[in-house]
Amino acid sequence: MTERIVVVGAALLDGDRLLAARRSAPPELAGRWELPGGKVEPGERPEDALVRELREELGVEAEVVERVPGSWPLRAPYELRVWTARLRPGSAGPEPLQDHDELRWLAPAEIWSVPWLEQDVPAVRQVLARLATGPRA
User: Fold this and answer.
1) Tell me, what's the pLDDT at 130?
2) FRET label pair with 136: which of 62, 78, 84, 86, CA 20 to 30 Å apart?
3) The whole model's pTM is what?
4) Which domains does the chain have, with CATH numbers?
């Protein structure tokens, strides 16, 4: 069996708002929305990869808060794992620097107003359920 390669996704939160990022590439994903993130490099901790990916893709300094339970298969051999995260004090606001052409902060009532990538939907549902139960420190 091929070893899974972890792809980290960030449920970047601002209060109860979740950041959604619209893909600009590759063509088959363009126009769909996702949680920002990317592949974990060999020898890298997933949490460190998440911070690095947010810096590269959005130009922000973020801190990981907690793992969202579950993992979701992507095309083999990739597997999505999601963490909640927040901007560090003094961080610049997110900008679509790489792989995305638009960002939106979505309140819970707006979460389903964008067409999410299918593989992100279960993770987004988990994050929405966590928001409904209240914030965690």
Assistant:
1) 86
2) 78
3) 0.91
4) 5-132 (3.90.79.10)
For residue 74, give the 3-state DSSP assignment: coil
Question: What is the structure's pLDDT at 134?
Answer: 64
Class of residue 128 by CB neighbours under 10 A (exposed 0-12, middle 13-18, buried 19+): middle
The values of phi and psi at residue 98, to 5°, are -150, 130
Which residues make Cβ contacts (< 8 Å) with residue 6, sequence separation at least 6?
Answer: 39, 40, 46, 49, 78, 79, 81
Q: 109 exposed, middle or buried (CB, 10 Å; 0-12, 13-18, 19+)?
A: exposed
Give me the residue label for tokens 């003094």: 90
Q: Which of 54, 71, 43 is nearest to 12 (CA)?
A: 54
Q: What angle do CA 35, 38, 39 make, to 5 degrees?
A: 145
**Per-block average pLDDT, block size 10, for the chain (137 residues)?**
87 96 92 96 97 96 95 92 97 92 96 96 93 65
Kind and range of the H or E run holding 57: helix 46-58
Q: How far apart are CA 65 and CA 10, in angstroms?
A: 10
